[in-house]
Amino acid sequence: MPNSPKQALLFTLLMCPIMVAGMSLYNMIAIHGFTWEALRMAIYGFPLALLVAFALDFFVVAQPAKALAAKIIRPSWPNWAKIVTVSTTMIVFMVVLMSGFGAVMAVGYTREVWAQWAANIPFNFIAALPLQLIIAGPIVRFVFGRVLTWRRTRVVHLNQ
Hints:
It holds the Pfam family DUF2798. There is one protein chain. By secondary structure, the chain is mainly α. It contains 4 helices and no strands. It has one domain. Helix 1 packs across helix 2, helix 2 packs across helix 3 and helix 3 crosses helix 4. The two termini are 28 Å apart.
């Protein structure tokens, strides 16, 4: 897990593309079925969704989600429980906000946007939580750990 602002930035840069790709594909398959059109639409919407997700994650969600998780976590908990708690609070905040983004993208700024947003939240939560806990989280933590180990090793070798 990140211990500094630079590490938090790196972690977010690794996590966002995986989550946005997975959730974009999930939503497009739900709309278009398991077709090439779903893949095309997911790819087409990816850059804007990634930009919005990164901005929300890094500048809006991270601090309050981690603060809430800190109130829930007990010092005696094992690391995996702390990771699950932080990940879950992040997912709750991000699902609410990104579901709003998806609603606006789907129906625009119309009367239907609120109903669409409300419908999107549980629909997206049931995919985002396992995607984060089972796929994206472990992959990103593995890569993140390797990058930090590589940087430390490289710095040690350069200083010798």
